[in-house]
Amino acid sequence: MKKLIKLTGNKTELILLVIPSKFPEIIYWGKKLSLTSTEEAQFIEYSELPVPQAFLDDEQYLTIFPLLGNGAFQLNAFSGSRGQQSWAPQFRQLTYREASSGSLEIDARDEIAGLQLTIKLELNNWDILEQEITLTNIVNDSYQLNELFISLALPAKVNEMIQFHGRWIHEFQQQRSLINQPCYLVENLKGRTSNDNPPLLICGSNGFSHQAGEVYAFHLGWSGNHAYKLSMVSDGRKLVQFGEKFLPGEMTLSSGATYTSPKLYATYSDGGLNQLSHNFHAFIRESGRFAKHKRSYRPIHINTWEAMYFEHNQEMLFKLVYKAASLGIERFVLDDGWFNGRNHERAGLGDWFVDKNKYPNGLTPLIEQVKKSGMELGLWFEPEMVNPDSELFRKHPDWVLHLAGYQQPLGRYQYVLNLAHPEAYSYIKTCMVDLLNQYDIAYIKWDMNRDLVQPGNSLGYSGVHDQVLATYRLMDELNQLFPRLEIESCASGGARVDLGILRYTNRVWTSDCNDPVERQSIQEGFSYFFPPELMGSHFGPEQAHTTNRLNTLEYRILTAFFANLGFEQNLLELTAYECTQLKTYIDLYKKYRSLIHRGDFIWLDTLDPGQKIYGVISADKTQALFAVAQNGFPVNQVSSKLMIPYLDESKNYRVKLLNSQENTGYLMKKSVPLCNGELLLSGKVIANLGIQLPIMHPQSILLIAFTSN
């Protein structure tokens, strides 16, 4: 007999139709319905579909675990075999356990195939649907698992999607398109989350935007290989499927062994992209599932990489420390080049010992100067990598991920160290623990600069899955041993940003590109899933190292405002006037830092594709900070009005422009009230009439504060 199981979150609901001897079907996922018993009966009675001619005779339900063995064909969520047997299981024996109104566990067995399956679903208080699957081999023979996908059905009205792609220095780019093909498949085989095919997807109704429309967002919390599929079924519904991507032979289950999939995180919003962001941001901030920040604020960084590269000169470093402290910077991060043999990128990785030629007295003098200046020290590591030109590799070439008989390709002049190798793991952990015990290091910039190619372990099997788990374990053990330590996830910029690594890391390096024009689009894509305080965004030099583009000081610093602010430029090259400007902006950032890192992040829809408007609003709606970024040449000669519907319409707000444009006389014969002093406007006027913006240059930003008593 059919029945309903309802999973209830804060504002949303997932309704499953339970079908005898079959996996359940999602028949509703959206805002809370609070159905009566009569309405529940109607849901059950009228959920059946017609059975078309020239197809299987029984109705084919779009279940949460569609199987080839049941006729799911291209929707198949499972692939594997025992020798040449047990390759089309059906899992007819099902039991259900409802732990609460928001969670469900489904156990399923197939005695013929010798497999047991457990599917866990939870719709939590932040309206994030969490789902994972565990497969157990229950007979004596080993089982080869090839694919295991978590599957979620969407209604037919979902017709558009945003996919995310990119490359080095160009991450989190959005590709918006109609869903008009039978199937879309995206795979990543690079051994890390990747900056070109991250496991992120947004689907929604026609014309959805930042402020409006029904949308569903999906993110697989896994830092290795992955794949996702988006399929259109015969009645127009869509099926989204995510899972880890195995290399051939990678996941073999011995008798009694289990495999648990990475967790899929998904959410529904009827308030456009902004509401789905609020769901993800609140979940990350409040759930306790992810690494907590260990200070009362997120320190402002100075990172030495673009200031000095491999030229570690102690006299220059001390001057840089003094200059950083005078500007109000709070953390000094010593980047690559501090350890033995590391004079260029072709040598030294793996030899994690302080280079006595550069630091005759170790790091103690630098740390003392950093602490004396009121800052804390961070240190760069790349624990998963080794250069061929290193003592470690010369002693232990077998510790590298490789396939015997082949020449392992170099990437960034380095190999990948097999952290699943017990001795290699112990060596790296000992090196890091010794340094963290010896020196007062508050922060690790954990880098990972290459993709994995032929990543074979000592037996010649694929080692990607085990490498990811070993990396997680090492980070976790360091966090346990050093409770005050914070870790940044960096991987050629943003190639390892996901909710798997964020269980152990407190910050991510979003991109190696500090060009603010590029950062504007990078940071938008990032912000849909991750809150601004996790996003490392740095002020770089006037001429960006990655693009050669020139940008003003104001545009560079304000682009980095809505994030965890940092500096990458050699501060010793700044003029006295530039230092004064920066000190003013740093003080302003500190004034609004708590709001930026705790408020609700908002994007406003704009008619001008070269303009982005975004900001944060406090939970009680008494305070807000917005940026109007004119990144490209304005479409219209006269700027549009700033209309913010997210403030409290019953409150009055003092509206103040916090920066002033240069050369405005060239743009306007007559300015606007916003540029001439503080305004007093009601929330209703701001939402419905709006605030007239001035005409803006390309590559310029207005920073506007809203305060209500």
The parts where pLDDT drops under 50 for at least 5 residues are none
Terminal CA distance reads: 59 Å
CATH level-3 fold name of the largest domain: Beta-galactosidase, Chain A, domain 5
Described by the principal axes of the CA atoms, the overall outline is globular
User: Helicity, in percent?
Assistant: 10-25%
Domain module count: 3
User: What's the story with the biggest beta sheet?
Assistant: 10 strands, antiparallel
Strand percentage = 25-35%
What's the average pLDDT? 96
SSE layout:
Blueprint: E1 3-8, E2 12-18, E3 25-31, H1 37-45, E4 78-81, E5 93-100, E6 103-110, E7 115-123, E8 128-137, E9 143-148, E10 150-154, E11 158-167, E12 170-178, E13 183-188, E14 200-205, E15 215-221, E16 226-232, E17 238-244, E18 251-253, E19 258-260, E20 263-269, H2 272-286, E21 301-303, H3 305-308, H4 314-327, E22 331-334, H5 364-372, E23 376-381, E24 385-386, H6 391-395, E25 415-416, H7 422-438, E26 443-446, H8 464-481, E27 486-489, E28 507-509, H9 516-527, E29 535-539, H10 553-559, E30 564-567, H11 576-598, E31 600-604, E32 611-617, E33 623-630, E34 641-642, E35 652-657, H12 664-667, E36 679-682, H13 683-688, E37 691-692, E38 700-707
Parallel strand pairs: 21-22, 21-30, 22-23, 23-26, 26-27, 27-28, 28-29, 29-30
Antiparallel strand pairs: 1-2, 2-3, 4-9, 5-6, 6-7, 7-8, 8-19, 8-20, 9-18, 10-17, 11-12, 11-14, 13-16, 14-15, 15-20, 16-17, 24-25, 31-32, 32-33, 33-38, 34-37, 35-36, 35-38
Structure notes:
It is a single chain. By secondary structure, the chain is of the alpha+beta class. It folds into three domains: 3-286, alpha-galactosidase from lactobacil brevis (Beta-galactosidase, Chain A, domain 5, Distorted Sandwich); 301-484, TIM Barrel; 602-707, Golgi alpha-mannosidase II (Immunoglobulin-like, Sandwich). The chain contains 13 helices and 38 strands. Strands 5, 6, 7, 8, 11, 12, 14, 15, 19 and 20 form a ten-stranded antiparallel beta sheet that branches. An eight-stranded parallel β-barrel has the order 21-22-23-26-27-28-29-30. Strands 31-32-33-38-35-36 form a six-stranded antiparallel beta sheet. α9 runs parallel beside α10 (553-559). The relative contact order is 0.08. The model has no long low-confidence stretch (mean pLDDT 96). Keywords: Glycosidase, Hydrolase. InterPro entries: Aldolase_TIM (IPR013785), Alpga-gal_N_sf (IPR038417), Alpha-glycosidase_related (IPR050985), GH (IPR017853), Glyco_hydro_27/36_CS (IPR000111), Glyco_hydro_36 (IPR002252), Glyco_hydro_36_N (IPR031704), Glyco_hydro_b (IPR013780). Residues 23-253 form the Glycosyl hydrolase family 36 N-terminal domain. This is Alpha-galactosidase. It is an enzyme of class 3 (hydrolase).
